[in-house]
Amino acid sequence: MIDQLEISADAKALIMDIASLTVRVGEMIIAIGRKVVSFALGLMKKFPNTAFGIVIAVIVGALLGSAFGGIPLIGAVLVAKLKAILLIFGIAKGALTDLAGTPLRAAVDDLVTRIAPVAKVAQ
Q1: Which of 32, 33, 61, 98 is most solvent-facing, going by the fewest CB within 10 Å?
Q2: pLDDT tens by residue, 46-56
């Protein structure tokens, strides 16, 4: 799955390093890195617009940090607040787009259909 990503070889090598992380718990060895990478790639596949919104927010936040970070006293506070606002906006906009017409929308509609008879009985 990692080999099929359209990213640089260095980024793929870094992801492979993360995927190879293991934790020893007593007698068991748990491949925690593989689970983290698998979870992250699964989220990116299921929610591409949310992932894109997060990436854009982080990039714009870094640009703002380089532009306003040098302002004495208020620069760091201003940049921190702007980055938080950008992340919230990026996540919200991406999530709304993902909810609009993707498999998540179908899953939510399916859940509503299943719960509807129970809701009618409860009334």
Answers
A1: 32
A2: 888 888 888 88
